[in-house]
Amino acid sequence: xxxxxxxxxxxxxxxxxxxxxxxxxxxxxxxxxxxxxxxxxxxxxxxxxxxxxxxxxxxxxxxxxxxxxxxxxxxxxxxxxxxxxxxxxxxxxxxxxxxxxxxxxxxxxxxxxxxxxxxxxxxxxxxxxxxxxxxxxxxxxxxxxxxxxxxxxxxxxxxxxxxxxxxxxxxxxxxxxxxxxxxxxxxxxxxxxxxxxxxxxxxxxxxxxxxxxxxxxxxxxxxxxxxxxxxxxxxxxxxxxxxxxxxxxxxxxxxxxxxxxxxxxxxxxxxxxxxxxxxxxxxxxxxxxxxxxxxxxxxxxxxxxxxxxxxxxxxxxxxxxxxxxxxxxxxxxxxxxxxxxxxxxxxxxxxxxxxxxxxxxxxxxxxxxxxxxxxxxxxxxxxxxxxxxxxxxxx
Amino acid sequence: xxxxxxxxxxxxxxxxxxxxxxxxxxxxxxxxxxxxxxxxxxxxxxxxxxxxxxxxxxxxxxxxxxxxxxxxxxxxxxxxxxxxxxxxxxxxxxxxxxxxxxxxxxxxxxxxxxxxxxxxxxxxxxxxxxxxxxxxxxxxxxxxxxxxxxxxxxxxxxxxxxxxxxxxxxxxxxxxxxxxxxxxxxxxxxxxxxxxxxxxxxxxxxxxxxxxxxxxxxxxxxxxxxxxxxxxxxxxxxxxxxxxxxxxxxxxxxxxxxxxxxxxxxxxxxxxxxxxxxxxxxxxxxxxxxxxxxxxxxxxxxxxxxxxxxxxxxxxxxxxxxxxxxxxxxxxxxxxxxxxxxxxxxxxxxxxxxxxxxxxxxxxxxxxxxxxxxxxxxxxxxx
Lengths: 395, 383
Hints:
The complex is a heterodimer. By secondary structure, chain A is mainly alpha-helical. Chain A contains 17 helices and no strands. In chain A, helix 4 packs antiparallel against helix 7 (132-163), helix 9 (207-232) runs antiparallel to helix 10 and helix 9 (207-232) runs antiparallel to helix 15 (318-344). Chain B has a four-stranded antiparallel β-sheet. In chain B, helix 3 (58-84) runs antiparallel to helix 4, helix 9 (270-276) crosses helix 12 and helix 12 (333-342) packs across helix 13 (357-374). The mean pLDDT of chain B is 86. The A-B interface holds A 264, 267-268, 271-272, 274, 311-313, 393-395 and B 45-46, 48-49, 55, 59, 90-92, 98-99, 101-102.
């Protein structure tokens, strides 16, 4: 078997268009966000929650994939690990998005008002959890833990590029195993705090799994998009084969189904039970224009990508993968919009400057950080002992 | 009988490691063979590519069967639940599609899986055949355990007994063998449509159905497994030879009072009620409280809070007489009970539905208290 050479001149060179597009979107998004705060602060606060959720889910999803790669000792994906590390690079910046919201909690969270627990004493059991100091502590703690794991895993991975020390892989396997457990708990806290408590009376035990499905799916979509685009334009330092594409497509396909499975399970049980405390979340979402959006979401994040990816050739087709990845990222944004915005306006789906700001700012932050990270470290982990075998991967 | 002539199925070659099999597969493709297959105990990465396999059409079978299963289930659920026997369950609409989704999914998977396996068997064995020439060969036993093999079939255009054998030996095969059809495989004599095979299937089906039926529907009901199914009692709605009217069920004995019901024999008999009824309750604190509550709820809108007939309804309803007039102050309890229960001359309606029996008596105690307060000493002594 011929051993593949790593193209050194492409190792740290992402096409300039990535950084340019990233900065443009970031600036446009930031300006629009400030503008929307000036026009309608309440709407804009909800918009910022969407941005925080989008960036956080994509970022932590990226770190999840890196962790899974280490824990499972996967070989095929070694060359593809770095893009996911770069996607996870947004984790340290999440606090910048969360900070303005921590000062504006009373605008978005109903439970922050003193009258809330007074008006509905049945909610008093939640008072020890839902209060502003504890909320802030939790948010800071979760973001700190994520940053810590991100820092350790990525530092070890980068160190290996020069030291070629196999012990670093072993270290990262142990760290990642711990991270995956912590990840499950912290993502639960994050999604319960920032998304579920928007409807404070409502609860769903599967909600964090639903957010997890979206996070893992969207980060895989973004990773696939960038990897396939770079490889097709011959800008990736190594040559990837359709077999690598197939695995990426298979992951997308699997998590499209997983997302639908979890989303529908959550709906079915509460729809069937029809209990007052469980339907609070669904009633706005199955009436009026939100009902139309719910159907679009089911088609957009499940049925259409399912049939686009179902065959084997489809999972290997770069054009199809690029299209489905972009499609799924838009669907994920729609999913977040669908989770957050009915709380702001339960009667009608609203679309305005805030929503444009949300999309531009989210993609802008992720792309800018990606381009910045890609300049700072190698596009493939050249020191990883599994790299060569990973490149020779066949189905 | 063509006992002397043996027909060749093909030539098998065994290799001792997967790397050799990969190389052999590449060589076989390069040589131009089409009707061949590779065998290995586990999936080998890269074998598909080495064999230059085309896309399998089994997936089409899965798709069509899966969609059929889904469609059938939706039609079935819709027909049974919305058309043939409409039944409201849990207050949901008759065609409550979300509750059918899990079943639709199951049926899709069931139909898809069963027909995929059937299609694979059909392609591999060539149904209705039920046997393959490679079965029961040393080659098959080896590749199902620790060997890696290739079999080239004799129907291939490039196949030549001598050349192909040499070609495979040159590839580094451990063992190259010729595999012949067995006589029964040639004549299509033993297929899945074979009467013996069909009979066997039918017998197995009958036996297992019978065992299930006997076990679950009959044996479980035999004593000592169940001692409760034989009892000395008559079942409802059955015939009886004992009673002259032929019904096993008997009407209740005359004068039977159903649980929780109290007969009232002075309905619309004001004179009887006045003469014979008296308040069964004692005027305890609780009774007075209940009476006050009910009086204020049901009586006071017309009669006024103190039975002064100061109606709050501004003349929308007829204004009743004050309960403090002499004839009412001295009237017996039975009159009040009868009027509350059955109304009065079409002017006051019956309150039997709203006020339970005991609470009517409690109201009467409360009315007595109101009267006592305004007319000391004049309230009827005789109850």
